[in-house]
Structures are given as C-alpha cells and as structure tokens.
Backbone:
C-alpha cells in the first residue's frame, strides 16, 4: 500500500490529452495490464498498444480536479514517466531530483522524464469511490476501476500480452 500512496502523491493533471513521451522499445513484446481485486480475483485485462504507454486518471478527492500519472514500458520494466496537476493540492507535489518540473498550458504543473521504476511491475492502489473515478486510459480505451472495485485495493500488473502461463494471482 505504501508504494500506491507514493505514486498517488506524485500524480497530476493531464491537459486533457496524452502527453508525448519518447520511448525506446527494447523488443517487440506486446504488453497488457492485468488488474486483480480482492482475493486476487481478475477484474480486467487491458491491452497496451505500441509503446506500452498508459495513464492512471482520477479526480482529486478534496479539490475535485482531474489528476493523472502516465506510465510506459522500458526494457520490460513498468516506469512512471510523467504526472500533471493544476496545483499542488493536498498530497501532490514535486520531489527534487525526480523528473523535471514544468509549467503546463493550463496554468498547472507537469513533471516529466521521471523514469521511476515500479517495483515488481505491479502498482498497488486503493481505488476511490465513483466520484473519484480511478480509471486506466490507453488512449483508445478507458476502464473505470472505481466502477469495478470502488473503495477496494487492487493490483495493476504489467504482463506480456497473451501469456497464458501468467496466472492472475
């Protein structure tokens, strides 16, 4: 749970579109996210296209504005790449030495080039209520985690696509 809190605290607002992220693919592996809930019950499998980029989006529980963290796959490692927010409300901010802080075109803040590896390629998250609406967006698809598992803990795990040997555990 501690890593989920740290990732959530690094979150930010996306300027309503995906930010371009330069990605160097190490191989042609296709990736997907395996989302599991209570008792490791499978909730969703989400295919990642091309670079493996995806974003976790939610509405800040106090201020209500959208918050987003964008991830990518680099050398088979899930990486936190960028985050954006309109202001540094409760729990949000920049840690010196972790990425580059920039101003965005919406009068907010963006932290880019973070390159923070996610341990075990697994993001643990306590999903918020429907009003918080935690969701995963791949650009072509959005899956609401709050609709699937509001107020519950989930794991979002990076796996090779089509890996039938990969158990959701």
Residues:
């Amino acid at each position: 749970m501690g890593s989920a809190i740290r990732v959530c605290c690094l979150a930010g607002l996306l300027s309503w579109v995906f930010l371009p992220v330069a990605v160097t693919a190490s191989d042609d592996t296709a990736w997907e996210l395996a989302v599991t809930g209570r008792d490791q019950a499978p909730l969703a499998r989400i295919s990642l296209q091309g670079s493996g980029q995806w974003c976790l989006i939610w509405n800040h529980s106090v201020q209500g504005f959208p918050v987003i963290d964008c991830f990518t796959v680099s050398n088979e490692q899930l990486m936190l790449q960028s985050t954006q927010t309109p202001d540094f409300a409760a729990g949000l901010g920049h840690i010196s030495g972790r990425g580059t802080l920039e101003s965005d075109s919406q009068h907010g803040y963006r932290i880019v080039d973070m390159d923070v590896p996610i341990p075990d390629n697994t993001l643990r998250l306590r999903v918020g209520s429907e009003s918080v609406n935690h969701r995963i967006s791949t650009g072509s698809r959005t899956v609401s985690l709050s609709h699937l598992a509001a107020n519950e803990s989930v794991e979002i795990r990076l796996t090779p696509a089509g890996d039938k040997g990969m158990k959701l555990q």
Q: What stands out?
A: Residues 1-26, 165-169 have pLDDT under 50 and may be disordered. The first helix runs from residue 2 to 9. The chain is about 10% helix and 40% strand.
